[in-house]
Amino acid sequence: MEPDTMRRLFAGELGPERDFFIYSRHFNPTVLNLGRQMAALEGTEAAYCTASGMSAIAAVLLQLVGAGGHVVASKCLYGGTHALLSRFLPRACGIRATFVDADDIHAVRAAVHEGDTKVIYVETMANPTLAVADVPRLAAIAREKGVKLVVDNTFTPMVVSPARLGADVVVHSVSKFISGGADIIAGAICGPASLVNSMMDLQQGALMLLGPTMNAKVAFEISERLPHLSLRMKEHSERAMEYAVRMKKMGLKVVYPGLPDHPHHSRLAALANPGYGFGGMLCLDMGTVERANRLMHHLQNTTQFGLMAVSLGYYETLMSCSGSSTSSEMTPQEQAEAGIAPGLIRMSVGYSGTLEQRWAQFERALALLHQHQHQHPDADVGSGGGSLF
């Protein structure tokens, strides 16, 4: 209303905390509203939303680490994050990363170079191996060493609350479970208000100056979906658990943290919020890429069990062979070190249709695979991995 208001806005004397907004790349009231919902979801002081999960990750790392800084990261990360840390950031601004087994606390501690390392970076549940990070112990190391623990919680919203377990920053690809519709690309950064404000700083902010802030129309749509996220996550988890139990009984090599034989079963049981199960992601190790692809072909094209796609968190089951898709940015050696087997199918378990109807579709596809193997016993010879039957 007053000419001097604009000067005061740009000088930082007035801002969104008093309902003054400069421009939607800076703060936008609709995006800020979603940010408050995300902060409430993750139990952080503040949050702000971005145009994609990768932009949230990249902006946080640029803001916290800076040129020439060092990151200690888990060996097993989403392929895009791995490429960002191992290739793009070193070339673009000299940020270096040391990849370690996040489960080896001594290795994590040894990799932190005091004064040089700025961030420890992990995924709550690793993509695609479903290893579960020991967030409280990693947070203790971060505090001891004076660095920030950044946790990607894309696979486990509602299931785990990393900030309540000691993480400094929680990032999300909102495109996945939180959106739930596989129709939106979005991200979120949840953490201290000081971080969010620094990222929106007019002179120094990675979000403000690089510009990957969220579109207000997208923010409105997502805020309408958050109220039923808890119901969706419970159903994803229940279906995944039931499938995992049945698959294991059939003799399949299934990876699911809800199964007692998963190496981190008791850890996730202790860290998880009660009532949300063990998440909606499971993996099937089919031994070879050929066998994995043949099963996925039947699951999609013959029995309509699910869809081949690299996203997750949809109401339909989505599946992909991780080594040749979402982890393809990693070299074969990097994949092997991360524990990503060539025939590993990552499955995001949906909840459409009845459980029994979907299970019957899975069984039919498996029977067709079994039949093919009997008719062509030498089909997969030489490509590694033994028969599952």
Automatic annotation (TrEMBL):
It comes from the Eukaryota. The modification N6-(pyridoxal phosphate)lysine is found at K176. CDD domains: CGS_like. GO terms for molecular function: carbon-sulfur lyase activity; pyridoxal phosphate binding. One of its GO terms (cellular component) is cytoplasm. GO terms for biological process: transsulfuration. The keyword Transcription does not apply. SUPFAM superfamilies: PLP-dependent transferases (SSF53383). Its cofactor is pyridoxal 5'-phosphate. InterPro entries: Cys/Met-Metab_PyrdxlP-dep_enz, PyrdxlP-dep_Trfase, PyrdxlP-dep_Trfase_major, PyrdxlP-dep_Trfase_small. Coiled coil: none annotated. Keywords: Pyridoxal phosphate. Belongs to the trans-sulfuration enzymes family. This is Methionine gamma-lyase. It comes from Ananas comosus (Pineapple). The lineage of its organism: Eukaryota, Viridiplantae, Streptophyta, Embryophyta, Tracheophyta.
